From TrEMBL:
InterPro entries attached to this UniProt entry: Cro/C1-type_HTH, Lambda_DNA-bd_dom_sf
Molecular functions (GO terms): DNA binding
Pfam name, any one: HTH_26
Alphabetical list of PANTHER family matching this protein: HTH CRO_C1-TYPE DOMAIN-CONTAINING PROTEIN, PTHR40661
Keyword terms: DNA-binding, Transcription, Transcription regulation
Domain of life: Bacteria
Protein name: Helix-turn-helix domain-containing protein
Keyword DNA-binding carried by entry: yes
Domain HTH cro/C1-type: 12-66
């Protein structure tokens, strides 16, 4: 049986992976020190209740989803596959390739912020 720090670390990592959230983004978005988040993820310390509430709200989950051990914390297998991309030999896209695509998109929108949320901006103009 895992201790509460290990359970919390596993659950935070699970939801970060599920939402493709980096440590830096999570710490920035929740105004939590990066080093504090790192100690939670390494199961060295346990977050206070207000931080647990912030994370639960951020991920759109119940606090219990972070605190309690879950047997079904398997990676989400609904990811884009090679077949989805028209690559008939199948298989799940490697994490490194997903990260490469995310890096490319990040760089593109950094250079072209006018295309970010383009559809939302059109709705704002109406």
């Amino acid at each position: 049986m895992s201790n509460s720090k290990e359970i919390m670390a596993k659950n935070i990592k699970y939801y970060m992976d599920k939402k493709s959230i980096s440590r830096q983004k999570l710490s920035d978005d929740l105004n939590i020190k990066y080093t504090t988040l790192a100690t939670w993820l390494q199961a060295e310390s346990y977050p206070r209740i207000n931080s647990i509430e912030k994370m639960a709200d951020y991920f759109g989950i119940d606090k219990s989803d972070l605190v309690e051990e879950h047997k079904d914390n398997k990676p989400d297998n609904t990811a884009v596959t090679w077949t989805d991309l028209g690559m008939p030999y199948g298989g799940v896209m490697p994490k490194e390739l997903k990260e490469t695509y995310a890096d490319l998109a990040h760089s593109y929108f950094k250079r072209h912020p006018e295309y970010l949320n383009k559809d939302e901006n059109k709705n704002d103009e109406k």
